[in-house]
Amino acid sequence: MTDPLDEARDKARRLRADIRSFHERVMPDDLKRKSHLHQVLGKDDYVRWMRLLNDQGWAIGHWPKEHGGQGWSLLERFTFEDELARLGCPWVIPFGVKYVGPVIYAFGSEAQKRRFLPRIATTEDFWAQGYSEPGAGSDLAALRTEAIRGEANEGDHYVVNGQKVWTTYAQWADWLFCLVKTARGEQAQKSISFVLIDMKSPGVTVKPIPTMDGYVHVNEVWLENVRVPAENLVGAEGEGWTYAKYLLKNERTAGALLGMACHALERLKALARENPSASPERTAGRIGELELRLLALEVASYQAVESMMRGTDHGGEASLIKLRGTELYQDIAEAAIDLLGLAGVAWDPAALHAASAPPLGPEDAGGIVKDHFYNRAATIFGGASEIQRNIVAKGVLGL
Amino acid sequence: MTDPLDEARDKARRLRADIRSFHERVMPDDLKRKSHLHQVLGKDDYVRWMRLLNDQGWAIGHWPKEHGGQGWSLLERFTFEDELARLGCPWVIPFGVKYVGPVIYAFGSEAQKRRFLPRIATTEDFWAQGYSEPGAGSDLAALRTEAIRGEANEGDHYVVNGQKVWTTYAQWADWLFCLVKTARGEQAQKSISFVLIDMKSPGVTVKPIPTMDGYVHVNEVWLENVRVPAENLVGAEGEGWTYAKYLLKNERTAGALLGMACHALERLKALARENPSASPERTAGRIGELELRLLALEVASYQAVESMMRGTDHGGEASLIKLRGTELYQDIAEAAIDLLGLAGVAWDPAALHAASAPPLGPEDAGGIVKDHFYNRAATIFGGASEIQRNIVAKGVLGL
Amino acid sequence: MNMDLETAGMLRDSASRYAADNYGFLQRHAVLTDPAGYSAKAWRDYAELGWLALRLPEAHGGLDADPLAVGALMEVVGSRLLMEPILASALIATGLLRSQGSAAQQAAWLPQLADGSVKLAFADAEPAGSSPCQVRAGRISGRKIAVLHGDIADRLIVSAADADHGGERRLFLVDARSDELEALRYRLVDGRGAANLHFAGVPAERLDPEDGTPAQAAVADVLDHATVASCAEALGIVRALVATTCEYLKIRKQFGRAIGTNQALQHRAVDMFLLQEEIAALTRAAQAALLLPVAERARIVSGAKAYVCTAARKVANEAVQMHGGLGITEELDVSHYFRRLMVNAALFGSRDEHFARFLAATTHSTPEGIPA
Amino acid sequence: MNMDLETAGMLRDSASRYAADNYGFLQRHAVLTDPAGYSAKAWRDYAELGWLALRLPEAHGGLDADPLAVGALMEVVGSRLLMEPILASALIATGLLRSQGSAAQQAAWLPQLADGSVKLAFADAEPAGSSPCQVRAGRISGRKIAVLHGDIADRLIVSAADADHGGERRLFLVDARSDELEALRYRLVDGRGAANLHFAGVPAERLDPEDGTPAQAAVADVLDHATVASCAEALGIVRALVATTCEYLKIRKQFGRAIGTNQALQHRAVDMFLLQEEIAALTRAAQAALLLPVAERARIVSGAKAYVCTAARKVANEAVQMHGGLGITEELDVSHYFRRLMVNAALFGSRDEHFARFLAATTHSTPEGIPA
């Protein structure tokens, strides 16, 4: 009996090989080096990276062919990010190509498609996501940012007031896709709309939130009487929640840190070889347990993807992958810090982003420390671990 | 500056030395052997054991001198049980000497004191505790056993109806001290009374609850129209909750498994020496972590006792000692099972209590397995771990 | 290299139905308290249902089932805690006979295994410090311990040094009722039987594989299969424990509401579920790995076993804990699952041994989680 | 062997008051962003408060404080994350000078330590693979790394082989501003400063203990004291984290109610609290153990450090997690406590090293938890 997934598996296998070859032959050395040392990438680096991917047809490989994509299966899509991460490549910035792009081609107007999709594919526009608000992190029903339809004499537009928070790379963004309340007093989920906001609009202020790695990844975005043309409403008013859920469903495997964990574990093993510790057996045992957890994550992740493709998933897979992946990744980072010893603490966060060599330890010590700091957020952002467990308890176990 | 606890510490140190000497010189070899092999003791064994202790003045060492005790400090009391357990001695059955005895001398009538206390000290009466009910384990407010004051023409008595559960060694008991409802509809805590029930009374039925170690430690006790003379009410009607709390406060350190954990860990280390495993480093590391937790438990326990004596305790100490002690003891047992390998599973629970040698492994393999089974209850009985955490969350952290 | 999803699914369904009807908790209780320690009737049923022919070659009327199908059956075995020697006889001993028996030996014994008239057990482990089992002039001497179902086996496959042929380690077939065989029979903590055996010159028939496969390789292969089968059994147990615990959380009331409304217990139930899903994924991956040569499968098979041991234990501990006092009683299935998992963990190599084998086999290259 | 509860209590109270008034989060922020990396004013205050004379002998006008009193101060240092070199100068270097300095050297330096006019740092660790530091003809050559507060120290105590006297390892006093000394100054992840030092023939004054105590023994003794002091600092941090987390759980609302009403978070807060209490108990026991000879204290001192490392990390991770996104920002104290604990864990020997020392010293006999 032929398994209907065989074809997807073959394609994914070929894609994986292509990515390796790309990494070896195409990826520029300076970008590889920065990425290898876990240095912070700037906007220029990321734009360059995204365009490199787009040159391969990969940045929007998961889009349908009619919109210029390759119509990847979920398995190819997962393999793509997994393999890039295993090779230690930079993050594939998702806000344009993965988040807002699909919402626009699925629900946007023809004009929106023409206007935005090409510039998303090429990262000519840098996008950010305006979901979380103070007091409404995991609880979107508590959103308070309001979009009031303007008076007739002011043209067809919304006036948006509110505050978004934890907005990744808003400092670089040209556009913000944003959940706003377009109606009051109604059932929360029926009052939310999905709008596209030009970051150059008057009234948009970005305030950085420095994190403990000494860098700015996230921001507050203040919206004060921001005029948003009505044509920038995606789909219908009050349907924002539906689109956000669609986006989320597309991104069921987004929390997977499998490839990153795999890469970090390889680095950890090299560290252990470089710095034989006072207790090599303990170190070997500790790394071995991480290795075993990685195996479990690996098989669970790929089987989850296949279940989703077969439609036999129970709905808890995304939470499983995220919970286990983030916990594992954090624990690998902790083990690396321990192995680094004094080199793991001898680095001013404010200097972590400089290209200079760290005062102690291997060349990538700073990058390892930086990642350890910022990745404490892995169990917080994108649906905190507590929320993931709530979801499974209610949605899968019926508790 | 002299520490006011110095005297108590000196006394406790002497008591510890006396106990060792007793264990070496006085304790009969057959009882020592049974206890060493973790065999199940019968009622005769326990009665003999309790009388041996009483001969030393220790069974009621914690009672005030006016009632025949030695007026032990909390530190002596804790040291007493700790040291016995470290030496692998049998359990000091608490229901008479520790639980009901103090309630009787504190709140009982003179007649009750004269009648019961001497027979408690010598274990002429074997006592059991009737607290838990089906549906009212940790939640005493849900008690349903009722005691109705009889009509005048039937004499001065209560008629008790209800069911108790998880009653330890009820199958041996002469007497049951029991929480019952003597009033309806009132605030739960004001409707509970503390009565003493003769187990030979008509209407008392004991039904064993076999546990997975193949033995009967606990029972259901059914009370059907049991006549309890009014003189067997302790103190005042409706004050049962107060007495139970008094008892509990006396027993704040009762959940401590420090000495047992210490003894089990010594046995585990010997097992590791006897059976060098496939991975001695892993075994050594695992045992080492248990050893470290034992150190933490040890210092936390003794400091908790001293805080209680100084009156500087925050109220969470008892929970801490119980939580950590039970978790540690269970983990030591699991490690022993793993070290025993096949010998740790080659033993029919129904045969665990026979004196014959086990089919595989060392002579005490059966005892180790039996303890592993029954001690899963350590985190359940006497205030489950979940309840302990609730208590600390509310009582200490104010959550 | 694809496994047959359809056969596995059908087997799972029919086995589940049979076990639900015939092996409920009380029905099993009767088996457990029977001195034989297993149900002869159930054993005949299994033969009729074809379970005992699962691993037989098609040439001998068997199903030649792949690891997925074997796993489907073993999950049901775990979910109802079947007491009969399916694993010991129909999987392990049958596997050894397939690999090590001559054509004539296979023809003689496989049909009797398939119809249930013969129960086989594999005697391998020897007590520390005793001289190794040896066959001389066709008679075997020595000691074996912890032979799973050795208490009720009709015949035994015994590993021993073949002194008649240069001392090579080979497998031998032995009559379990021989006069020269002394057995100490006992029950394991989960109620299944076992035996320690003392052979004092018992007539032994050497298994003679046509293709000359060394006995050691055959044993290693069959033990890998048994290891993965025990993972599937653990999965069946864990699924049962997670389901019964979630059910209990919904039913049991304390302080006036279902205890399952407490978020702390919800989150712990989720953690049990996550472990269940990981056990399922690793078991599935290990089943696929059994189609690979022994050297290439070691990492996943032993990794799975090591992870499953720890994960299943956590689930069992939590199931007992969340059931409160009931969890430790004989009267609830939870404690029986707990004990079966203990035995499972101790069979076919300890957690430490498999972990060491996993590590030794570990080198990272391509993702292995993609089922072949 | 009793420690002085009263002195410790008074010190704790006054230090807490001072730090609350002078070292709040924003006041500390100013110190953190100052290029010097510490507050010269605070340092003068500490001298006035007597903190810098804490370990000085009474003969030199010090308090000769016991480990309990030192711990009381260090708890406050942890609770407010003081940036000044109390540990490096007033405890470690002062301790070394007390033990290894001649009467004349003590008379010369101890008063300057007590009044804060000299900050000392101890340079001990050397980079892997470099030739060991050596003193020849009164001048020191070689490299030292990760010298805590080596960036701002006025003088250094340096360990080196004394080639002028047979190569014995001794301690030397060195001017940190010497021309022959090259320093790479940097900040640690918690904002405290450190330096890597390259000595190219720097004039060095040998410490000459009156009683001939070997330098190695003195260093081991002082490092035990420093280890226990770092446990007390960790305790101060952990108490702050537990308190701030419980507070946040009460204030922060989600889905219409305080997140602290969620039982799962309550239980996790309890687990943080339990760890705090264990850290407190072990720290207290380790303080008492410091009154014992070095050989007898190893088990408890290293056991405490090993346990505290792991326990404090768990608390910090949970504190960050329960604060959500805020937990990882610069703007909340939680992330600062997190980073200080990281540094703490790496100082004075790793968790693994202390665990190994604990195990090596472990033989069970009498309970050691009874404070002397």
Automatic annotation (TrEMBL), chains A, B:
<dbReference type="InterPro" id="IPR052161">
    <property type="entry name" value="Mycobact_Acyl-CoA_DH"/>
</dbReference>
<dbReference type="InterPro" id="IPR037069">
    <property type="entry name" value="AcylCoA_DH/ox_N_sf"/>
</dbReference>
<dbReference type="InterPro" id="IPR009075">
    <property type="entry name" value="AcylCo_DH/oxidase_C"/>
</dbReference>
<protein>
    <submittedName>
        <fullName>Acyl-CoA dehydrogenase</fullName>
    </submittedName>
</protein>
<keyword id="KW-0274">FAD</keyword>
<feature type="domain" description="Acyl-CoA dehydrogenase/oxidase N-terminal">
    <location>
        <begin position="11"/>
        <end position="124"/>
    </location>
</feature>
<dbReference type="InterPro" id="IPR013786">
    <property type="entry name" value="AcylCoA_DH/ox_N"/>
</dbReference>
<dbReference type="InterPro" id="IPR009100">
    <property type="entry name" value="AcylCoA_DH/oxidase_NM_dom_sf"/>
</dbReference>
<feature type="domain" description="Acyl-CoA dehydrogenase/oxidase C-terminal">
    <location>
        <begin position="238"/>
        <end position="396"/>
    </location>
</feature>
<dbReference type="InterPro" id="IPR006091">
    <property type="entry name" value="Acyl-CoA_Oxase/DH_mid-dom"/>
</dbReference>
<keyword id="KW-0285">Flavoprotein</keyword>
<dbReference type="Pfam" id="PF02771">
    <property type="entry name" value="Acyl-CoA_dh_N"/>
</dbReference>
<dbReference type="Pfam" id="PF00441">
    <property type="entry name" value="Acyl-CoA_dh_1"/>
</dbReference>
<dbReference type="InterPro" id="IPR036250">
    <property type="entry name" value="AcylCo_DH-like_C"/>
</dbReference>
<dbReference type="Pfam" id="PF02770">
    <property type="entry name" value="Acyl-CoA_dh_M"/>
</dbReference>
<keyword id="KW-0560">Oxidoreductase</keyword>
<feature type="domain" description="Acyl-CoA oxidase/dehydrogenase middle">
    <location>
        <begin position="128"/>
        <end position="217"/>
    </location>
</feature>
<comment type="similarity">
    <text>Belongs to the acyl-CoA dehydrogenase family.</text>
</comment>
<dbReference type="InterPro" id="IPR046373">
    <property type="entry name" value="Acyl-CoA_Oxase/DH_mid-dom_sf"/>
</dbReference>
TrEMBL record, chains C, D:
<dbReference type="Pfam" id="PF02771">
    <property type="entry name" value="Acyl-CoA_dh_N"/>
</dbReference>
<keyword id="KW-0285">Flavoprotein</keyword>
<feature type="domain" description="Acyl-CoA dehydrogenase/oxidase C-terminal">
    <location>
        <begin position="221"/>
        <end position="352"/>
    </location>
</feature>
<dbReference type="Pfam" id="PF00441">
    <property type="entry name" value="Acyl-CoA_dh_1"/>
</dbReference>
<keyword id="KW-0560">Oxidoreductase</keyword>
<feature type="domain" description="Acyl-CoA dehydrogenase/oxidase N-terminal">
    <location>
        <begin position="8"/>
        <end position="116"/>
    </location>
</feature>
<keyword id="KW-0274">FAD</keyword>
<dbReference type="InterPro" id="IPR046373">
    <property type="entry name" value="Acyl-CoA_Oxase/DH_mid-dom_sf"/>
</dbReference>
<dbReference type="InterPro" id="IPR013786">
    <property type="entry name" value="AcylCoA_DH/ox_N"/>
</dbReference>
<dbReference type="InterPro" id="IPR009075">
    <property type="entry name" value="AcylCo_DH/oxidase_C"/>
</dbReference>
<protein>
    <submittedName>
        <fullName>Acyl-CoA dehydrogenase</fullName>
    </submittedName>
</protein>
<comment type="similarity">
    <text>Belongs to the acyl-CoA dehydrogenase family.</text>
</comment>
<dbReference type="InterPro" id="IPR037069">
    <property type="entry name" value="AcylCoA_DH/ox_N_sf"/>
</dbReference>
<dbReference type="InterPro" id="IPR009100">
    <property type="entry name" value="AcylCoA_DH/oxidase_NM_dom_sf"/>
</dbReference>
<dbReference type="InterPro" id="IPR036250">
    <property type="entry name" value="AcylCo_DH-like_C"/>
</dbReference>
